[in-house]
Design brief:
The protein is mainly alpha-helical. The protein is about 65% helix and about 0% strand. The chain has one domain. The protein contains eight helices and no strands. It is globular and about 55 Å long.
Length: about 230
């Protein structure tokens, strides 16, 4: 049944409600949005592959993304399962963690800053986190701005580092574009089947962004020497 958020018989009602921008109908259940929740398992499959790769290669970039991907999948699952402000916020923070990592690497590649990677990355993440916590639910705007900055920095590097193979980056960009289209069609209710708990366009956003993460790691692992 459609969940009455004030019904004390339904799980999660003691928690503050998070933003509700997806099409899938919310159920009176521990997993309020089954399709949008369980689709995050793709991140956990990806994480297992990343950890195995990191153990074989010793690549710290792959290892870092394995941990980030694990928390991203976990918090995204609970964000949709609970529909609460707490897990929605944690979900956004892990999205910032992914894009912030890429942005920090790009700034170092471009020579714009001379800070050690851990310090630069932590600074970017903390600024994004502060903006999320102190303003009224700006998560999507912050994510969009950070993604735009990461893309622009990579475009700048195309001119200054033309010999770098960017196949993985372009593959990831196409997947993210497809995922963004799915996200937008779902959020605007343009393509919306609320009672279908097996197929949702937002769940395909999860699948496509997980695939994009695979190619991003494939691309950025070559800059491991900057991760010191």
């Amino acid at each position: 049944m459609l969940i009455p958020f004030t019904d004390p018989q339904c799980p999660w009602t003691s928690f503050a409600l998070g933003p509700m921008i997806t099409c899938e109908q919310r159920l009176c259940s521990w997993v309020r949005q089954p399709s949008n929740s369980w689709s995050n398992l793709i991140f956990l499959v990806l994480v297992v592959a990343f950890f195995q790769d990191a153990r074989r290669s010793g690549n710290r970039v792959v290892r870092d993304f394995a941990w980030i991907g694990a928390f991203l999948g976990l918090f995204s699952f609970f964000a949709h399962a609970s529909q609460t402000y707490l897990f929605s916020t944690l979900d956004y923070l892990m999205q910032f963690a992914v894009i912030g990592y890429i942005l920090a690497l790009n700034l170092l590649r471009a020579g714009v800053v001379k800070l050690p990677f851990p310090l630069l990355y932590t600074g970017i993440f903390l600024v994004a986190t502060a903006a999320q916590l102190f303003f009224t639910r700006p998560g999507m705007m912050i994510f969009t701005l950070m993604t735009g900055a990461a893309v622009l920095s990579e475009m700048y590097l195309m001119g200054t580092r033309p010999k770098t193979s960017r196949r993985g980056f372009f593959e990831a960009a196409l997947l993210l574009l497809a995922g963004t289209i799915c996200f937008a069609l779902d959020a605007k209710k343009t393509v919306c089947f609320p009672e279908n708990h097996f197929f949702q366009l937002h769940s395909w956003w999860h699948v496509l962004t997980a695939a994009a993460l695979f190619y991003l790691v494939k691309y950025y692992r070559q800059f491991e020497k900057l991760r010191r």
